[in-house]
Amino acid sequence: MPPVGLIIALILLVVAAAVVAIVLAARAAHARRVAELQAWAQRNGFRYEGDRPDLVSEHAASSGRRSVRHVLSGNRHGYSTLIYELSVRTGHGDSARTRNYQVVALDLPSPTPTLSLSREGFGSRVLEFLGVHDLRVGDPVFDETYRVETSDAGFAMAVLTPDMRSWLMTAMEYLDSGISFTGRRLVSSRHTSGSRSDPDAGLVTADYLAGTLARVPAQVWRAAPPPGMYPGPQW
Hints:
Number of helices: 7
Number of strands: 9
Strand content: 25-35%
Structural class: alpha+beta
Order of helices and strands: HEEEEEHEHEHHEEHH
Oligomer: single chain
Shape: elongated
C-alpha cells in the first residue's frame, strides 16, 4: 500500500489539476465570447468596450452585488446607444442567486425628469429609489397594462400622448420590462435565462427605443430642465 503521504499528495495534485482545467476552460470561453462580440460590433458599426465598472453605479437601486460586462457602444438612428450585460447577485452561500439582464440604453436629446413604465415589477424598483409616485393617465387599457411612475406628472402626461400610448401598446412585446427615462437615457432591460445576452435582440430593442423617442413631442425637449439638474440614471 502506498504511504498515506503519497496518497494525499496525489489527491491534491488531481484537485489542483482540476482547478487549473476549470480556470483555463473559463478563460477560453471568455476569450471566445469576446471574439464573438468584437466581430459582431465590427459588422454592426459598434465598438466592444468590455467591462465598464462606471456603469455599475447607474444601477444603484438594484439590491445586491452588481457587475456590468460585455459593453457594446454605437449609434442607432442618431442616438448614442449602449448594449450590455448586467448581473445582480443576492444572498450568500446556498441562498445566493444571480439574475442576469440585457440592458439597452439610448442617450436622450436633453435631460428630463424621471419616468418609468413597467409591466413585470422590475421597472417599479427603478424610481422607488428616487421617491417618485404612481400616475394614472386616464386610458383604462393603458393603465391596466403599464404601471407609470414619475417625478413630474406634467412631463409624464406630455410624453404619454395618445400616439405614444398606442405605440407602447404595440411595442410592449419588444420592450420586455417596460422603459425608463432615467434623467439622461431611455433604458429598457430584459431578463436573460443564462449569462449570455443577444446583441441582435439588443438592436431590435434599440430600434423600438428610438421609435419611442421619435414620438416624444418636440416641445418636451425644449421644456427639459437645464443640464445638471438630473445627473443620470440611478436604477
